[in-house]
Write a structure and sequence with these properties.
Blueprint lengths: L2 H11 L4 E5 L2 E4 H18 L6 E5 L4 H13 L2 E4 L6 H11 L3 E4 L17 E4 L7 E2 H5 L16 E6 L9 E5 H14 L7 E4 L6 H12 L3 E4 L5 H10 L4 E4 L1 H8 L14 E4 L6 H11 L3 E7 L5 E5 L11 E2 L5 E4 L19 E6 L13 H7 E2 L2 E10 L5 E6 L4 E3 L2 E3 L1 H8 L5 E11 L3 E10 L6 H10 L11 E4 L13 H9 L1
Helix pairs in contact: 1-3, 2-3, 6-7, 9-10
Length: 508
């Protein structure tokens, strides 16, 4: 199955249902198809052909949705770039792609320096003039449905760039099969229903954003655009557009749940909330359950490379678990080794912590990084993807993530995993956020250091030390020997704490 067929079949099933809402603009499936056909026909005449990389520098908006489906129709590759990155990183991605076409808007024009291109692309401006052609010129001529050539399920659909916390981003090519299988599993695992309505606020340069868009099209649902994150605007749209499913980052749920207006039963149509991208603390889980009162509360654990690793739809029962493997996945936990000399057969026993690896046979799995065979070779071994995450299974076979293999602390020869210490500290009522790391020590090798963002400025290191000493789940040797207090932590645009940058900032 290719995505062009997914879209066409959705239009044929329910042409008059609402497909996209963006501010005052609304498109039924039939209306959306007309504009997609017009854009595809014009792009085809401009020279866009199969396998061409079309770089997209846009916020979520109706034009981005139209262009996504038009590019799928042509068999070209939709390559959205994170517009919150620096111009230097953006140009690295554009040149790495060897993009022949660049689509941008007024808000992102500053990211483009035309002198930095190795080979000049064609520029398409969404907002008026300034490019070689603008969006209105693309869609002004109506076009009948046409198919320029066959599209195979193994053909590339998108290239997404991972948002690494250090070094240049890596391009992750994903096929039509990858995107279809990932969206199918997302619908099934998250308890979505026909004609659901979701909030399109996660950017299309992120796998969560694409999943929100494609799953709604597969279900003949409605994709409601929110161009910039604002929790008050989100609450208004959830109520106004009768949003039934949400797929957001934990910090977004946190922002909504703390608003006074969120306490007034404004989520009557909402049956499912799903989060990914970062852990959610037990305190926040309880708050979300109270505020949203969802029928289904799901934690999704995966990556850009292989969309699903595991999912947990028993979040309130097992608030720290990421659940069981997705419907397409085979997961193993092997002996942890930063040099990756261990093989997929070096499994640990249930309850023991090891590195999480995922079999590449999944239809959700990529085939390797774009233009980076050496990194692919380090990440993929014997047809297994080495995630770099540490975890363990409990007696019921549910997976728990314990941190990253490169963040493991060695204290006097004992292995300590930051997440197990962090989960204890987060139970303290005065702790808002915490990062635990190893600090070099001449005698012990490393000692446990806890960096704390308090929600009560009266919090002291002695108070936390006493709390850890008395906690039944934390061995004494694992408790932090040093505390620092911060006003906030540096984070990626998707809410992940940048641990390496935090440690560098504190050392400096």
């Amino acid at each position: 199955m290719n995505l062009s067929k997914v879209f066409r079949y959705a239009v044929e099933r329910h042409p008059d249902r609402m497909a996209v809402v963006d501010r005052n603009q609304t498109y039924t499936y039939r209306e959306l198809e007309r504009e997609v056909n017009a854009a595809a026909f014009s792009l085809h005449r401009l020279g866009v052909k199969k396998r061409d990389r079309v770089a997209v520098l846009l916020k979520n908006r109706i034009e981005a949705v139209v262009l996504f489906w038009a590019i799928q129709k042509l068999g070209a590759i939709f390559a959205p770039i994170n517009i919150r990155q620096s111009q230097e990183i953006v140009h690295y991605c554009l040149n790495d792609l060897e993009a022949r076409f660049v689509i941008y808007g007024k808000a992102t024009e500053y990211l483009i320096d035309r002198k930095k291109f190795i080979e000049r692309p064609l520029f398409i401006n969404i907002d008026g003039f300034g490019g070689d052609i603008n969006y209105q010129e693309l869609v002004k001529q109506p076009a009948e449905d046409f198919q320029p050539g066959p599209i195979l399920e193994e053909d590339l659909s998108v290239i997404l760039y991972t948002s690494g916390t250090s070094g240049n981003p890596k391009g992750v090519p994903r096929s039509h099969q990858n995107e279809y299988a990932s969206s199918f599993s997302h619908i099934f695992q998250c308890h979505y229903q026909w004609h659901d309505t979701t909030l399109g606020v996660m950017s299309l340069n992120h796998t969560m954003g694409l999943r929100s868009l494609i799953s709604m099209m597969m279900l003949n649902g409605t994709y409601v655009v929110l161009r910039d994150w604002d929790p008050s605007d989100a609450v208004q749209l959830i109520e106004q557009e009768k949003i039934s499913v949400l797929y957001l980052l934990p910090n977004m749920y946190h922002d909504i749940a703390l608003l006074p207006e969120s306490k007034r039963n404004r989520f009557d149509e909402l049956h499912t909330i799903v989060y990914a991208g970062a852990p959610m603390s037990p305190k926040l889980i309880r708050l979300c359950q109270e505020v949203f009162q969802p029928k289904h509360f799901v934690n999704h654990y995966g990556s850009t490379e292989i969309y699903t690793f595991t999912f947990c739809d028993r979040v309130t029962e097992k608030p720290s678990s990421v659940g069981k493997p997705g419907i397409h996945q085979n997961i193993r936990i092997i002996e942890p080794d930063v040099y990756r000399t261990k093989t997929p057969d070096d499994r640990v026993k249930d309850g023991e912590i090891g590195e999480i690896i995922v079999h590449m046979g999944s239809p959700e799995s990529f085939k390797g990084y774009w233009n980076k065979p050496d990194i692919t070779k380090r990440s993929v071994k014997d047809n297994w993807y080495y995630t770099g995450d540490l975890g363990y299974k409990d007696a019921e076979g549910d997976l728990f993530v314990a941190g990253r293999i490169d963040e493991m602390i060695i204290y006097a020869g004992d292995k300590i995993y930051p997440l197990e210490v962090e989960s204890v500290l987060l139970e303290h009522p005065k702790v808002q956020e915490v990062v635990v790391a190893g600090e070099p020590d001449e005698r012990w090798g490393q000692v446990v250091t806890a960096h704390i963002v308090p929600n009560d400025q009266t919090l002291t290191a002695n108070e936390l030390d006493l709390f850890c000493k008395r906690h039944p789940k934390l061995s004494n040797y694992k408790r932090p020997r040093k505390y620092t207090f911060q006003s906030s932590f540096p984070k990626t645009v998707y809410g992940k704490i940048m641990r390496k940058k935090l440690n560098m900032d504190i050392q400096n």
